[in-house]
Specification:
Elements (H helix, E strand, L loop, with lengths): L1 H17 L41 H13 L3 H12 L3 H7 L9 H22 L1 H4 L6 H23 L5 H21 L9 H20 L5 H18 L29 H22 L4 H29 L7 H35 L4 H27 L3 H33 L1
Helix pairs in contact: 4-13, 5-12, 5-13, 7-8, 7-9, 8-9, 9-10, 12-13, 12-15, 13-14, 14-15
Keywords: Membrane, Transmembrane, Transmembrane helix
Protein name: DUF3667 domain-containing protein
Pfam family, one: DUF3667
Length: 434
């Protein structure tokens, strides 16, 4: 009888222990029954149908907070994840593969968060610098080159005038060159947005490049370049006189694979090749317009395409890892985890570099003493990227330095080709949307 009572007590204890513990914020319905199947509730979910006991009808701000928490995981896991992501190559990947996942942000969620922040800030940084490196509507590069050349010519003229005896031949040549470059400067400063000015500005820019090449090499042009120089000089004179040009200049670039500049493929029909050429010509016109006006819209469109393309590139990178380490007996998802963590690291590190560059720009005027240290830290982070990825590959796949280096080099080369191809796709895609 006592044994029977003891068994019954133990059974009650085991039953009690096996019941799921209700969370502190769990509130059952007023009648303590499931709203769906009306069965009794003993936890946050119905044991019969699986429906959540807590109502989804909440204040809107509560829903937003929960959504942000689900996407970005703003909790202590983020802190525990970011530091080893940057400083401990392969640690997060090995922990995840080993099953130790509760303390860290999941790889996919980590990648989404870091990439979103990275591409948003990248657009901001690039567009902020557009006046320095991207704006070509005022032909700033050519104007600067002409002004620099004029300064040099003026110095040479002064030297020739100070010489004793004065070399009148050199002085005459220098004076003519100064007059020529002043004319170039006047022509290239014309408003490019006015349609009639475009041919003159384009021809002048090309002629300036050829002129500067002569000064740099200290010898006259020859062959094709000499013919091109004469043609441009003649056409500029005829253009100013309102005469017909000897030859209509082609676009600044071409994507054709034929001698006449057209694009065609044997496996396509004649109709399809015509459509392809029409599409190529429209892209060239859009590119010409973008590069001779404000390039900010094009840059914005290209950067906007990169997140989607990089997300597609991730599984392809994982396939590369699978091929290179086919004898490691690892699942594809393990390689994908390596890809997610490595890309998260790259994006986060480049983001840090961009921020350091901004701080360095401000410190040049506010705190010039620390500018050198900031620039050193920026360069150190960029150097750390390839080193980190090599160490990560060795620690995750546990192979020797030699084989790791060979595979690392092959993967890196193949991936850089893929990145270049992705950049071309982003550029073409961006052109189609401007």
């Amino acid at each position: 009888m006592q044994n029977a009572e003891l068994v019954e007590k133990n059974s009650d204890v085991n039953t009690t222990l096996s019941l799921p513990k209700q969370p502190d914020n769990f509130k059952s319905s007023a009648n303590n029954h499931c709203d769906n199947c009306h069965q009794p509730l003993n936890g946050p979910f119905c044991a019969q149908c699986g429906q959540q006991a807590e109502s989804t009808l909440k204040y809107f701000w509560v829903v937003i907070l929960h959504l942000l928490d689900d996407i970005f995981s703003f909790d202590s896991r983020a802190v525990r994840t970011i530091l080893p992501l940057v400083t401990r190559p392969g640690f997060l990947t090995n922990e995840y593969i080993a099953g130790k996942r509760v303390h860290y942000v999941p790889p996919l969620r980590l990648y989404l968060f870091v990439s979103i922040v990275f591409f948003i800030t990248l657009k901001f940084f690039v567009l902020a610098d557009s006046n320095k490196i991207l704006t070509v509507s005022d032909n700033q590069t050519s104007i600067t080159q002409i002004k620099d050349q004029l300064v040099l010519l003026e110095k040479n003229k002064l030297k020739a005038m100070d010489a004793s005896p004065i070399n009148t031949v050199d002085l005459l040549v220098i004076t003519k060159s100064i007059t020529k470059f002043e004319t170039f400067l006047k022509d290239i400063n014309k408003d490019y947005s006015i349609e009639i000015n475009r041919p003159l500005v384009d021809m002048t820019k090309e002629l300036v490049d050829l002129e500067l090449e002569q000064f740099k090499d200290e010898q006259p042009l020859s062959g094709h370049k000499k013919e091109r120089y004469d043609l441009l000089t003649s056409n500029i004179t005829k253009f100013k006189n309102g005469e017909t040009l000897d030859k209509v200049d082609k676009a600044f670039t071409t994507i054709g694979n034929n001698v006449d500049g057209s694009l065609s493929f044997d496996f396509l029909s004649e109709d399809s090749n015509k459509k392809l050429n029409a599409f190529a010509e429209s892209l060239i016109k859009k590119a010409e317009k973008a590069f001779h006006s404000d390039t900010a819209p094009l840059v914005q469109e290209v950067i906007g395409k990169l997140p989607q393309l990089m997300f597609v590139l991730l599984p392809i990178f994982a396939v590369l890892l699978k091929i290179m380490f086919m004898f490691s007996k690892r699942l594809y998802m393990e390689h994908l985890t390596v890809a997610l963590h490595s890309h998260s690291f790259i994006f986060f590190t480049i983001l840090l570099v961009e921020l350091l560059d901004v701080f360095a720009g401000y410190s040049e005027t506010a705190l010039p003493v620390i500018t050198g240290a900031i620039e050193f830290a920026s360069k150190a982070l960029l150097t750390w990227i390839p080193i980190y990825l090599f160490i990560m590959q060795k620690r995750v796949y546990k192979q020797g330095y030699f084989f790791t280096f060979i595979k690392y080099s092959l993967i890196g080369t193949a991936y850089m080709i893929l990145i270049g191809f992705t950049g071309v796709i982003a550029f073409v895609w961006g052109l189609t949307d401007i």
